[in-house]
Amino acid sequence: MRYVKKFFKTLFLTLFIGFLLIAVIIAFKLYPILKDYKEQAEELVSNSTENDFRPNETSFIYADDGSILAKLKSDSDSEYLTFEEIPEDFMNAFIAVEDRSFWKNHGYDLKGIARVCYDALKTNGETLHGASTITQQLARLTFLTNEVSIERKIKEIFISIELTDKYTKQQIIEFYCNDVYFANGYYGIASASNGYFGKSVDELSLSQIAYLCAIPNRPNYYNPYKNVDNAIERRNKILSDMLELEMISNTEYQKAISEKIEVIHNEDITYDYNTSYAIDCAIRYLMKINEFPFQYHFDSKNEYLAYLEEYEIAYEENRKELYSGGYKVYTSLNDEVQQLAQDALDEILYFDEEKKENGIYALQGASTVIDNKTGKVIAIIGGRSSEEQYGLNRAFQSFRQPGSTMKPLVVYTPALESNYTENSILKNISVTEANRLFEENKSLEINDLTGDPMTLRKAVASSKNGCAYYLFNQIGIEYGISYLEKMQFSKITNQDYNLSTALGGLTYGVSPVEMASAYATIANDGQFIEPTCIVSFKDCNDKEIFKEEVIEVYDYNATRKMTSVLTEVAKSGTASSMEWNSELPVACKTGTTNDAKDGWFCGFTPYYTMSVWVGYDVPRTLQKLWGSTYPCYIWQKTMSQLVVDKAIVEFEKPQNAPSTGDEKYLPGRSDDELLSDGYTVGDYRSDYALVDEIDAIAIQIEQGTDMNVIEDLYQQGLAIIESIYGNNATAKARERLETAHNVKVGISIMP
């Protein structure tokens, strides 16, 4: 027994020394970092003044011609309240729910910090929220970025300590009550009181005060204009906490908790579509430079929803920064192009005059125009014109199923990077059967499904769903979707990793801005430029803070091949009825969702890219809505006016591409020279390059011995012939193929 005790005593001592040694090593490594954080905090706070907590500098947003689109100003300075002017119930409400030890602590709460550390360890660092005192929240609002990290928490604490040393508690609570954000552009309790209740702070009831104090915790979720009842539960908690701390009596509590909350809706400041988009771009760029971790891949729905919550919080914090930071934002937005696009959408959709109760048209549309040369958005239409037109900007705030316009992005261009060619043979398999096999985890068996063979070029032009399914399964779903993530599609979740994504069957959908940006990436040789209208962004000291980032998403050869394929859509495919009255080439794709609830048209010329969506805000069927009807008409009407005076240029051709017969067929002549009505030298060369392929297949048939291989070659040849445009070339190719096949079949059946 004595030896057992000695053993455990020695073991305990060894473990204790080991833990102590580890603690010393960690402390030794952390000390320089913590020392640096402390010195930064000392410098920040020592240089601060009371004016730092009263942001009031106006920001300006400009159009491409230098005219002012918007003046963005916070009104918090004009309604600033001193400590003596702040009702005691306001301060008590915040203290009860946010920081019970406020009057005693030194800017931080050790118990809260311990709880955060425990949650962080338990969730592998995913949960880093809570336990921020009022002083810490003030430190974050005034001095820190919106990154979610342990480092920020540590910096927050050091700054809070310095704030507590420099300013009185009365000053800190005064700063906080005037600085905190209450959604909808209201900063500070005076602004929120007047905005939501039309009263000054000293006229509010206890219940109204508690209701307002609920909002800053999650401004977007508790936004009274979106759902007045969301904050009621938190109001009740605040009142309960105040009762528990004996800040109010039971009688006051009962009266306040039973009071019905009714907010007033002031006339919102609404901006036109291009201005609201410019403001969004500016806010998102501030989020970026403030190190918000934008995310485009989610492993679960919960991860996605948690990210959205973080995004909303950061978005509102950066909105405040934009409205009070004295920035100058210069954009590429062009009023003339904006008007062209707006007029086109209004004129095409004029036939449906049904309106909702709020006066907004039921049938809606949206579009985005990008200048290929710069990659910038130059016009953005968020809906039809009406007296109540502004508010929801559908071009970047609405997300809908894109239908077949998704195919080039996740299926065909990725495939062209993976050794497929425009003339690769695909099978138009049964979508229903493919879905069944996928759900049964039998993806390999999808390859064995039968279907009519056709070339990739023909499959795109005719928008064959079965071919897209077949090829998406071949190249790999994760591989295809990875391109959407690279192009920063914001609502792709783990639920989208299925074959339906090939046809645009997404959980949350895409926006017209995202689709225009993706097609502009194809137009620009695979170079992705984050969709924005910002060309210059200067801070209050006139220092440039904007930096362009270009990401190579697709191989340039793959995009040039895809562009060539997409030209067939307008020539002989689903958009062949488009009345394109320019000699400029067009590469495009139509898209229509199930039951004709959404119609899309995405396409580009050598100069501009444009996406168009048409549908109802609450999805429902619209007769004759296809990508090739109303969306196509809007696109054609807008684009034809944009390029009316542009020089005629062709799309870039792939390098090291197979010969199209330039030297062999009609040498020295221009591709766009007309040989007959609607048939050019370029068409002739493309046709006879395919005739050459048929000749090569015919030779393989003649030399073959395995009848299964011979039949496969024959079917491939038939599919290629379907892609030939001219009648003479078609007849020549068919005669060559049939002759070779008939001779071989005749030999095989001879005794």
Overall residue-averaged pLDDT value: 86
Main sheet summary: 5 strands, antiparallel
Tally the beta strands: 15
Major β-sheet strand ordering: 5-4-13-12-11
The share of residues in extended strands comes to 5-15%
Provide the low-confidence segments as ranges. 125-129, 658-662
Question: What is Rg?
Answer: 32 Å
Supply the helix-strand structural class: alpha+beta
- Global morphology: elongated
Helix coverage percent? 40-55%
In whole angstroms, the N-to-C terminal distance is: 99 Å
Query: How many helices?
Result: 26
Please tag this protein with its features.
about 750 residues; alpha+beta; five-stranded antiparallel β-sheet; 26 helices; about 50% helix; elongated
Can you describe this structure?
- 48% of the residues lie in helices and 10% in strands.
- A hairpin with a 5-residue loop joins strand 1 and strand 2.
- It is elongated.
- Helix 15 crosses helix 20 and helix 24 (681-703) runs antiparallel to helix 25 (707-722).
- With 751 residues, the chain is of the alpha+beta class.
Question: Summarize this, please?
Answer:
With about 750 residues, this protein is an alpha+beta fold.
Task: List strands and helices in order, with pairings.
Layout: H1 2-46, E1 59-62, E2 68-72, H2 88-98, H3 110-122, H4 134-143, H5 150-166, H6 169-179, H7 189-197, H8 206-214, H9 232-244, H10 250-258, H11 273-289, H12 301-324, E3 328-331, H13 335-348, E4 363-371, E5 376-381, H14 394-397, H15 407-416, E6 425-428, H16 431-439, H17 443-446, E7 452-455, H18 456-462, H19 465-475, H20 477-486, H21 512-523, E8 527-529, E9 534-538, E10 550-552, H22 556-571, E11 587-592, E12 598-604, E13 608-616, H23 630-642, E14 674-676, E15 679-680, H24 681-703, H25 707-722, H26 727-748
Parallel strand pairs: 1-3
Antiparallel strand pairs: 1-2, 3-9, 4-5, 4-13, 6-7, 8-10, 11-12, 12-13, 14-15
Helix pairs in contact: 1-5, 2-8, 2-9, 4-5, 4-6, 7-8, 8-9, 9-10, 11-12, 13-23, 15-19, 15-20, 15-22, 18-22, 24-25, 24-26, 25-26
